[in-house]
Design brief:
Shape: globular
Largest sheet: 6 strands, antiparallel
Strand order of the largest sheet: 1-12-3-10-6-5
Helix content: 10-25%
Number of helices: 4
Strand content: 25-35%
Number of strands: 12
Distance between the termini: 18 Å
């Protein structure tokens, strides 16, 4: 994980390492800071966000792209909900390339794209870790793909490439409302989205003063 100064150590409220190919969920409060760190490099993490009070109120890629007027977002941009409310503000980003086009990997598309069955998927991870919150699968199709390197050519064709992230690269979000966060250290091994090598992901929850 990144090295913190003394103030940041004192502000650290929670830390966890998500094992390679696994998921994690947590509750976060307004004004806290979430840091997601690629510990070994070229590892994607799918992120979902839900209003703690009403989980039908959730992160929306469509609203985020429209309200930021960008299909790719980075530091200074905001992740918006399906009701156009700010959920997460990106305050630091050492990579600057993430995805809001592709759905999370799932058992059905693994069969259609790669002819593979029985492997772990982001959908499976998110269903598992978000089950205590009774969040349906239909609410899991639009993640924020941290470090996912998807390209679109001049004719609109999409292609997947290894992430630009190196060991220790991270993204930080300031929480804009109380949220349930679901995370999946993407277990996809059949294309280049994780550099064909799965690795763990660092998660830290800090107070707002650590962003200064």
């Amino acid at each position: 994980m990144p090295t913190h100064n003394k103030t940041q150590k004192e502000a650290l409220a929670f830390s966890h390492v998500i094992p390679a190919g696994q998921g994690f969920a947590l509750n976060v409060k307004k004004d806290q800071i979430i840091r997601i760190t690629d510990l070994e490099g070229q590892q994607v993490t799918d992120l979902l966000a839900f209003d703690t009070i009403d989980t039908s109120h959730r992160f929306s890629r469509a609203q985020t792209k429209k309200l930021n007027a960008h299909i790719w977002v980075s530091a200074g941009h905001v992740l918006y909900s399906n009701l156009c409310r700010p959920m997460l503000r990106i305050i630091r980003d050492t990579v600057g390339k993430h995805d809001m086009q592709f759905s999370p990997c799932g058992p059905e598309d693994n069969v259609l794209r790669f002819g593979e069955r029985g492997n772990r998927t982001c959908i499976g991870n998110l269903l598992e870790v978000l089950s205590p919150y009774e969040i349906s699968r239909d609410a899991m199709n639009e993640p924020f793909g941290i470090f996912f390197n998807m390209a679109i050519d001049a004719e609109g064709r999409c292609s997947t490439h290894p992430p630009f992230s190196k060991p220790g690269d991270f993204i930080e979000f300031q929480v804009c409302m109380d949220l349930v966060i679901g995370l999946s250290a993407c277990p996809q091994v059949f294309n280049d989205c994780n550099g064909r090598n799965l690795s763990p992901v660092g998660l830290e929850l800090l107070s707002a003063k650590s962003a200064k």
